[in-house]
Amino acid sequence: MIKGSIVDLVTPQLADGAPDLEAIEALMDWHVSERSAAVLIGGAAGQVATPDFEDRRELLQRAIWQADGRLPVIAAVRLDEASEALVMARAAEEAGAHALLLELPGAIASSSEELLAQIRTLAQATKLPLIVRPATARSAPLPAAVVAELTKIKGVAGFVEGSADSNRVRELLALGLPKDFALYSGHDGSARVSILQGFHGCISITANVAPSLVRDVHAAALAGDRNGSEELEARLHPLYEALMTEAHSAPVKWALVEMGKINEGPQPPKLPQSSDYSHLRRALRSAKVLG
């Protein structure tokens, strides 16, 4: 079981939209040195443009090759791309991925039984453990009873809860899930409290730009250190706000350019009109990731 800070890695892109593989290699080395718990490839919430299937497969293979066993790599697959999900799962196995993160569709028209059957089919087709993540665009959380049923599917090893609702966290913990079934937060701002209550880590967007600090916050929470984790996280609050005001990855990519972690390129990432460059710079300085 992976515990702690899992980086939901954004995908730097070249001018033609293809993944910038050299930038990915550099980012993988950085996250190894920052001791992130794992890196998720192909699943960053709100990507402005999603690479096509072949690009995603090459991106995954390059990331795993660069990690070289130094940290676990999780491959994202999408349930609404059933045939491609099977191919990607096999490619992830062959490349040496540690696990699969299964993204559920944003709008699920099928019944819970049909949804569980689809997940079961994929779980049976791969040797890799599955972590299930509902789409962030869902209007309602996956029913707790369905989460409980997930634990009965061989190969399903975890669930990502994107809500910041503390009642929802308590509802999931009250299910009495198996000890080897992981619960992850999908919301940076509430992850620390969720981990203190019993979650195992977080699929983090903020860890793209402040990996060591996010790692330390989650590690302290896993150790039950409420005061220490709260003190550490105080530096992250402005960054949470600055990165999450927009429902896509542009602020994260802009921050990485500012930090010198990715190239500006011929088409530098632009913040939407509602975002504030100076506000994001101040947030980066508050987290002590920008001089």
TrEMBL record:
Keywords for this protein: Lyase
SUPFAM superfamilies: Aldolase
GO cellular component, one term: cytosol
Gene3D superfamilies, per the entry: Aldolase class I
Residues that hold pyruvate according to the record: 203
GO molecular function terms attached to this record: 4-hydroxy-tetrahydrodipicolinate synthase activity
Annotated protein name in UniProt: 4-hydroxy-tetrahydrodipicolinate synthase
Species of the source: Panacagrimonas perspica
